[in-house]
Amino acid sequence: MFYEPRLDNSGLAIDPLKALVVPRPIAWVSSVDLAGRVNLAPFSFFNLVAEAPPIVVFAPYGRKRNGEIKDTKVNIEAVGAFVVHLATWDLREAMNASSAQLPHGTDEAALAGLEMVPSRLVAAPRLAAAPVALECRYLKTTDLPSLDPDEPNGVIFGEVVGIHIDDGLITAEGRVDIARAKPIARLGYSLYAAVTETFRMTRPD
Ligand SMILES: Cc1cc2nc3c(=O)[nH]c(=O)nc-3n(C[C@H](O)[C@H](O)[C@H](O)COP(=O)(O)O)c2cc1C
């Protein structure tokens, strides 16, 4: 089959787009507003896009059902800091709960019973339970085209300035065995994948 997204003519019951670009890592992002109120939300339009220095990008698109721009975007642009956490199998329910669309200023971490601790280098606190946390300094927002002028599209770039890794993930050989953390990733519809096994392939050159 073939379809054109702008024509929405797949003929399928549900637009399959998000079931095709998979698995998407989940940035579980904490931020604070100018009053210091904590916010936590997951974003699967996310990736690492540079290494030296490390830079991440994610897309808090559209608006919440109450019409507000997503709190994560507003906070990061105002304060200039955020933390990206690895979403894991053990934390899956809390991660999902933190995606609830709540009015600005509501602390999803507190609602999900998650402990936040101060970060080392940035104003946004981090989740104590997350085995990996990337402290990020906001770099810039790039606006993108949107089919609906009332639903903004854009991506946020941040430089990773500090990295926390649970010592339990580090092997005797000095590598990170990420499968121990059972990361979860987003598929389409309401589906997720969990990384529980890995395989090795070496490059030809
Ligand atoms: C696994 C998962 C991935 C999500 N990915 C995105 C995303 O990439 N972009 C987005 O705007 N919303 C995404 N959402 C929805 C947001 O988490 C949701 O809109 C949230 O309320 C935003 O919170 P905030 O207003 O506190 O920033 C995702 C939700 C889940 C559960």
Automatic annotation (TrEMBL):
Pfam families linked: Flavin_Reduct
GO molecular function, one term: FMN binding
Gene3D superfamilies: Electron Transport, Fmn-binding Protein, Chain A (2.30.110.10)
Domain Flavin reductase like positions: 19-178
Stated name of the protein: Flavin reductase (DIM6/NTAB) family NADH-FMN oxidoreductase RutF
Organism: Dongia mobilis
